[in-house]
Amino acid sequence: MSETIEQRRKRAKEIKKHGTIRKAVEAGSLEQFQDISLSEAVVLGLLNQGVKTFIGIFGHGMTDVGEVLRIYEEENAVRTVNVRNEVEASHAASMLRWKYGQVSAVFTSIGPGAMQAAAGSLVPLANGLGIYYLMGDETSHSEGPNMQQIPRREQEIFLRVLSTFGPAYSVHTPEAVFTALKRGDTAVNGKSKHTPFYMLLPMNIQPRIMKKCNLLELPEKSAESKVMSTDQNLFCAAAEAICNSLRITVKAGGGAADVPAEVLEEFLELADAVYVQGPQVPGVYPYSKKRNMGVGGSKGSICGNFAMDECDLLIAVGTRGVCQWDSSGTAFKKAKQIININCEYDDLGQYNRSIRIQGDAEEVLRKLIGLLKQMEPKTSDPLWLKECMEKRSEWEAYKQRRYENPVLADEKWGKRILTEPAAIKKAVDFADAHGCIKIFDAGDVQANGFQIVTDEKPGQTITDTGSSYMGFAVSSMLAFALAGGKDYPMAFTGDGSFMMNPQILIDAVQYGLRGMIVLFDNRRMGAITSLQNAQYDVEFRTDDTVAVDYVQLAEAIKGVKGFYGGESLEELGRAMEQAYGYEGLSLIHIPVCFSRDELAGLGSFGDWNVGNWCERVQKLKHEIGF
Fold it and tell me: Largest Cα–Cα distance of the chain, in whole Å?
C-alpha cells in the first residue's frame, strides 16, 4: 500500500509541475504506462483538463476517490472543499464557472446526496455552465439492494434519472473512464453552450486497478467550439429585414453576455434600434445609453415592455425564449418578423416567421454590421426612439416615486418600516459605490432587483433567472473565497431563500469568506403572495407568523457578524458601512414592508401563462402566432 501511495504522490507532483500528463511524459518525468486505479484515473484525468477544485461531501459511496484526493491535496495538486450540503456545493461550483470561468467538480456519495447535487445542477443547466458531477453509485455486482440506491430491482436507475438532466455516464468498468472523460470534456468545455456532466462511479469499481494504463489516453481540455453559419443568404435576408423595418427592438439573453458594448452600440445605431435586456445580462450594454430600455418580460419595465410590444421587427440575441423573458410568447404583439441569433439550433426554433442564424452572438452581429454598412442608410420611424425614450422617462419617474417614499406602515411588523424597492435600491447603490458584486436570490428580491439594477458594465450583477433557485445567492458566495477573495460579494436574499440554504454561515468562516448577506425580511413568500393577490385577491399559505432574530442567528456562528438594518435609509446606510468594514462574513437583517399599497413594490408590466391568467394569455399567444 505504501508503494501505491508513493506512486500516487509522484504522479501528483509531476502533473502539478508540468500542467498536463503529456508534458510530463514528454519530459521523461512520468512513464506512459502505469498501474492506476479508476479513482485516481478520474482525479488525474480531471487535473489533465485543468480541474483543480473539488467541492462536496464524502460518504460511503465516495471513500476511495476521497483517498486519492487526500494524497493529491497533500502534494498541492488539488483543493478539496468539504461543505455541509450538496446543493451548496453545486451553487459554489456554478459561481466559480459563472464569475471566474473555473471548471470544478462536485462530489457526492450515493443516494440522497447525489439527488441533492442533481437538484442544485438545475442552475448550471439553465445558465449554460460546465461543471463535473462525480457521484457514487451502487455496485456493479448487484449483490442486493445497496444502501441509499433507488429501491427498485432494476439496473442503473440513477443513470436513467441523470441522463434526463443532461449528459451522464456510468463508469461500469475502469477502462470506460477514457470515454467518460472525453464526453465530459465535450459537455463541460467544448460545446458552444456548456452543460454539466454527470459521472457515476460504482463503489466496487472505484478501487479497481488498470494494469499498464496508458496515461496519454486521458484527454486534455478542448477549446470551446464557436459555431458560425456559412449561409450568406441568411445574413442578407436579415440585413434586408432590418432595412425594411421601421421600429426595431434588440432583445438580449444570456447568450449575448460576452458581446462587447461597442459592438452592440454600432449595431443599434446602424439598425436604428432600441435595446432591451433579459434579467441575466445587466451591464452588457450600459444602462446610461439612450437606446437602453432596461429589462423586459413578465416582470419587466414600462419602457422595456413598450419596446417589445410596439416593435415591427424583433432581433433576439442568445436567448432560450423563457416564459418570463417574452411574457409567455405574447411580448411581440406588432412584430411582423423575428431575427433569431443563437449557437443552439434547438433555441433557434423557438419562434415562427423568423430568420434563424446559428452562430456566436458577437460574430453574427459583426457580420451584420459589415452588411449594413454596405447598404443604403435605412429608413426609420423618426418617432420610434423618441417614444421609447419618453417611456423610459416615465419608468424612471415611476421608480423614483417609490424611492422617495421609502417607509410604509406594515401590519405584521406593527410599525413603519422600509419598502423592499427602497431598501434594495439603497443596497444596490452601496454595492456599486464600493465595487461589490451583487448576487440576487430568487423571489421578490430578485424580481424587484433586476428592475432596479442600472449596471454600466457586465459582471457586476449575477442572478439565476434560469432556474430561479432559492438559496443560490448565499450559497454561491463561497466561490469568492475559493477564488482567492478577488471580489467582494453582496448576496441579496429574502427570508425564505436564506433559510433554504443557510450553511454559508458556517462554511464562510471555515474558508475565510469576506462578504455581506443583505436579508430582506417580509416574513412571507412575497412574490407568491403578490401573485395570489393579483390573480385571486386573497393570500393562501404564503406568509408565516414566526419572528426570527437573524442577527442573533448569524452571531451564533463564531466568526460571523450580524447587524440590524433599521427602519430608515439612514440606519441602513450606517449598517452597511459597518458590515462592509468587517473582515469576514456579515449579515444585515432588514425588515421590509409587505402591503397592497402600490408604493410597496415595483409592479409587473407583462403577461404570464400562470394561474387564472392562462386562458387569456394562451389565446393571445396563438393569435400572435409566434
Answer: 80
Q: Any idea which of 146-155, 291-300, 426-435 has the lowest mean pLDDT?
A: 146-155
pLDDT for res 1: 61
The C-alpha atoms of residue 611 and residue 3 are separated, in whole angstroms, by 65
Distance CA 197, CA 162 (A): 9
Length of the chain: 626
Q: Which CATH superfamily is domain 412-594 in?
A: Thiamin diphosphate (ThDP)-binding fold, Pyr/PP domains (3.40.50.970)
The DSSP annotation for 505-531 comes to HHHHHHTT--EEEEEEE-SB-HHHHHH
Domain range 2-217, its CATH number among 3.40.50.970, 2.30.42.10, 2.60.40.10, 3.30.310.80 = 3.40.50.970
The burial of 300, by beta-carbon neighbours within 10 Å (0-12 exposed, 13-18 middle, 19 or more buried), is given as buried
- Quick one: which of 132, 119, 57, 127 has its CA closest to 93? 132
How many H-runs (helices) and E-runs (strands) does the chain carry?
Answer: 25, 22
* Residues in CB range of 163: below 8 A, 6 or more apart: 198
Residue 268 CB partners (closer than 8 Å, separation 6+): 250, 274, 275, 285, 291
- Whether residue 568 is predicted with pLDDT greater than 80 in this model: the reply is yes
Strands 53-56 and 105-108: parallel
Closest CA to 140 of 126, 130, 155: 155
Per residue in 442-452, pLDDT (tens digit) is: 999 999 999 99
Instruction: Report the distance separating Cα 626 and Cα 624, nearest Å.
Output: 6
Q: What does pTM read for this prediction?
A: 0.96
How far is Cα 594 from Cα 524, in angstroms, rounded to an integer?
Answer: 9
Give the N- to C-terminal CA distance of the chain in Å, as an integer.
65
Burial (CB count within 10 angstroms: exposed 0-12, middle 13-18, buried 19+), residue 350: buried
Q: Within the chain, which residue ranges are assigned CATH 3.40.50.970? A: 2-217, 412-594
Residue with the three cell numbers 443557510: 502
Q: Would you state the torsion angle of the CA atoms of residues 571, 577, 579, 583, taken in this order, to the nearest 10 degrees?
A: -160
The amino acid at 615: E
